[in-house]
Amino acid sequence: AILTCRGFQRVQRSSYHILSGNYVCSTPRSEVIELIQKGSFIGSRSRLFSSDSGDLVDAVVPFMGESITDGTLAKFLKQPGDRVEIDEPIAQIETDKVTIDVASPQAGVIQKLIAKEGETVEPGAKIAVISKSGEGVAQAAPAEKAAAQPPPAEEKPSVEKQTPESEAAPAVKDKTPSEPPPTAKKPTSPSKPMASEPQLPPKDRERRVPMTRLRKRVATRLKDSQNTFALLTTFNEVDMTNLMKLRSDYKDAFLEKHGVKLGLMSGFVKAAVSALQHQPVVNAVIDGDDIIYRDYIDISFAVGTKKGLVVPVIRNSERMNFAEIEKEISTLAKKANDGSISIDEMAGGTFTISNGGVYGSLLSTPIINPPQSAILGMHSIVNRPMVVGGNVVPRPMMYIALTYDHRLIDGREAVFFLRRIKDIVEDPRRLLLDI
């Protein structure tokens, strides 16, 4: 291949690097490199393509993010002999944060699987070989079946050989009928002391399942949070009457105009934004011997999925209205549940809201999501007798909790923060008047 500096050249089965102004050809590998020079700028782009055989394509693990160096091959979505189209997922890689699909670089037939499920793989590792024409796949399948059939045929004679031996064993035991009675009496004597020992369930009633990488990551981060932060939780209760009435009065008009349902979560997000603006230290974080104050508010909200807990982030929530917040929550929650959420959509976050009330939690002490400094816990709404205007009346009440890092946030700021949440939720008109 000839490379010039006047345009670009496409090179197959080779890669070129620029070292001290010279072009150096490295060993062949399955990539296409495009070098583009405009003035002093040279860009590169790579894409997988056929190997030296011309028909076979290697499916490799894609780049998984700057902070992710490896992942676990969770499962193969395709097996040898299956037809795949270009960019069709053939396997899933489970990382510490998200599940990533490995897409087929070419249309063809899966010839063989190189990696195994449960293995740890790195970006660029080969996991499968795809035949564009399908040659060799049809021949390999009968060979595998033929190789799989002989073992049962070989096992039958071994079973037949063992059967006479097992039948002959009782004949030997029958020759000594006088020995069983003394052996039968021996275990009866220690039966009384053994009755006091704990009876453990049999092992066949237990299941051992490896932890997923996401669960390992959650466990590590939460334990680090417990070991690092000076965790303290303060509580308050909120009368949900006015916020629930606001939602009931305008939910139909809100849905008709904005195309999304009006929930309670957007009210708490707006209340949290107001509280963080009044108490900026809650939005700050400790970095070594310094305190970093953030002039932006990215609200994280916890979403429980089948694979584990994920925390998407609502970016610049201080600039959003109720409709924009509800749309963002709906979109991110849907992505989290179907496993299509990206790492960028979960990175960062300055403050977290966890709504355990959707599961029926009455009260809890949430744990901080590092490197944040506080987390707000919402709980279930319960009608309780409250004194209003000198009369005892039923009111929909919710307990709220704020867990904070006491190294940075004093109790005064934490209580004021939670009181601001209470004031906004109980009287949403304060948001309009900014009081």
Tell me what the structure shows.
With 435 residues, the protein is an alpha+beta fold. Among the domains are: 58-131, OB fold (Dihydrolipoamide Acetyltransferase, E2P); 216-432, Chloramphenicol Acetyltransferase, CATH 3.30.559.10. The protein is built from 10 helices and 24 strands. The strands form 7 sheets. Strands 14, 17, 20, 21, 22, 23 and 24 form a 7-stranded mixed β-sheet that branches. Strands 6-13-11-8 form a 4-stranded antiparallel β-sheet, with no helix packed on it.
- The end-to-end span amounts to 71 Å
Work out the radius of gyration.
32 Å
Q: What fraction of residues sit in β-strands?
A: 25-35%
Helix content: 25-40%
Taking the sheet with the most strands, its summary is: 7 strands, mixed
Question: How many strand units?
Answer: 24
Give the low-pLDDT segments: 1-52, 138-148, 152-178
Judged by helices, strands and strand pairing, the structural class is alpha+beta
CATH fourth-tier homologous superfamily of the domain at 216-432? Chloramphenicol acetyltransferase-like domain
- Would you identify the CATH architecture of the domain at 216-432? 2-Layer Sandwich
Number of helices: 10
Shape, principal axes of CA atoms: elongated
CATH structural class of the domain at 216-432: Alpha Beta
**Mean of all residue-level pLDDT scores:** 78
The fold-level CATH name of the domain at 216-432 is Chloramphenicol Acetyltransferase
